[in-house]
Amino acid sequence: MASTLQSIRASASMISAPFGFNQSRLAPADGGKSFDLLSLVDYASLPSLKDADTKTILFAVLAIIITGLVSEQVLYWKKKGGLPGPKWTIPIIGKFADSLNPSLEKYQEGWNSGPLSVASVFNIFIVIASSTEHTRRILNSPVYAEPCLVASAKKVLCHDNWVFLNGKAHVDYRKGLNTLFTRKALGIYLGIQEKIYRQHFDLWLADNNPKPQPYMMQFRDLNMETSLRVFCGNYIPEEAAKEVSDNYWLITVALELVNFPFAFPGTKVYNAIKARKTAMKWFELTARESKKRMAEGQEVTCLTDAWIKAMIDARQQNENADLEAESRKVLVRDFSDREIGMVLLSFLFASQDAMSSGLTYLFQHMADHPEILRKVREEQYRIRGDDINASLSLDQVDSMEYTRAVVKESLRLKPPVIMVPYETRKAFPIDKNYTVPKGSMVIPSFWNSLHDASVYPEPDSFKPERWLEGPQSLAELNPKNYLVFGSGPHNCIGQQYANMHLTAVLGTASVLMNWEHEVTPLSEKVKVIATIFPKDGARMKFYPRAVPAPGTAPEVAASA
Ligand code: HEM
Question: Contact, 522 vs 538, CB < 8 A?
């Protein structure tokens, strides 16, 4: 009882001081008939009691803090086991400062310290995998680990977006989307892509700035507009397409690894939600309008059309009862306008950032390796014949063996996505020596696999020829190392489209333009945003390239 009173008193004194309470104000209004709690207190002993209580509270608080800090370290050591990583973790924030300013060099330190290493940020225990075996094991163990997006992702991309599905629900949903990247569909997209990147080349050529300028954002614009038109055709008017494209950057920056997760006005998450709402309005309209057009039997002009046409066809096939039950269920599933909108939202998000990184480095690598660019041109002149302005077919793109090897090598040397965060659903015995605790973040990293000297000799050199040495070459014998597009159930669904796009853009650019890259001390330094970019933003200048006279031999045209 006494101790209760003491704490009441302690609390009263702590509370009253700042609010300026005094004894007379606390006196009862009924002239003293009411029970006066304070009259029970022996005032003579008050000062010492007060002191004792303050000390007790201070001690208690201190003890709680110390226990918390010690148990944080003990827990970290226990989870860390024998793996490399900091011996202790900075209290509470851990490696937060590093994640605010990510650098490739810091990541490399971790990757090179062992196939598995650990860190902790805000008490999230993180296991980083850098060997091909461990990385693939994470990507291919859906029972133990699933992709984890940053805290704000569900707010930004909508909580019911398919990208948050896992297990069977995810596999089934993806089956329904595979139809979007068939050869037939890619052939339709190619025509749309070509028109758009030629318009962007004209803009670059019209840039009358005499000196090279950072072109990273112009490469992004090209990708963004191409993807938007490939996915949505002309259902979105010009002005709205520009608005969606410009605002999409707000979505990208709100999904960076470290971000304030609440949507207060003015925050990145708030702006991203606004951008998403505008984009979704147009994507849902695309779905609605496309459904009308496809029902009328009109021509397929974009990915949404191809998707809706596939649904209509499946329904008709089903009526003929020719399909197996399993595929019937998936194909005939009617995707609502909102679901289609959310898929388009996810595609655009996934495509613009990684493809912009890929395209930036592709142009940079080409300018820095003129002999390789010459070979690309020779192949292009050979395949395109005398008419470099004729539209391309998918067969022609497939036959660009050298250009495709250049794209593959460029993505290997500078992989746009260097890691993907996953989370363990239960304790994950990742190898015979270590089990990742449940609820940890596990990060498969791709850099070391893609720069493994035993598979890619001279791993830091740009050598497209390594992809042309036949099936017995080291690179071809070890496809498991080529993790540019991930692996397992969540591997990149857009990889054929991405490869086709990069090959076609480079091929056409090579015959229409010459370009110069101003190499600066930062050109080879990597800036890690979500994907990677050259730190100087890729300073380029583009010039028109003369059209070869009819009948010029490809090797002669290429050397001009
Ligand atoms: C050079 C360009 C690209 C690169 C390097 C890239 C890379 C990746 C990587 C590494 C992943 C994670 C894989 C995993 O967890 O195993 C991924 C997933 C994904 N990508 Fe791409 N991507 C590119 C372009 C695209 C494009 C153009 C699209 C859309 C058309 C796209 C759509 C997606 C989607 C939807 C996922 C998640 C798939 C799922 O969870 O099932 N990506 N991508």
Answer: no
Closest among 501, 480, 500, 502 to 491, alpha carbons compared: 480
The CA distances from residue 318 to 121, 177, 185, in Å, are 52, 18, 21
Residue nearest to atom 19 of ligand 1 (CA): 492
Instruction: State the complex-level ipTM.
Output: 0.99
Please write the tens of the pLDDT for every residue from 55-65: 888 888 888 88
CA of 193 to the centre of ligand 1 (A): 19
pLDDT digit string, tens, across residues 363-400: 999 999 999 999 999 999 999 998 888 889 999 999 99
Q: Choose which residue among 485, 499, 501 to substitute to test ligand 1 binding: the one with the highest number of ligand atoms within 8 A of its C-beta.
A: 485
Ligand 1, atom 17: closest residue by C-alpha: 492
> Ligand 1 site: residues with CB under 6 angstroms?
139, 147, 163, 174, 346-347, 350-351, 354-355, 358, 416-417, 420, 484-488, 490-494, 497-498
The DSSP string of 157-212 is: H-TT-GGG--HHHHHHHHHHHGGGGSHHHHHHHHHHHHHHHHHHHHHHHH---SS-
How many alpha carbons fall within 13 Å on the CB side of residue 142?
Answer: 12
Distance CA 385, CA 247 (A): 41
Residue 180 Cα: closest atom of ligand 1:
30
Of 372, 355, 381, the C-alpha closest to 505 is 355
Helix (H) / strand (E) element for 253: namely helix 238-254
- Other beta carbons within 10 Å of 141: 19
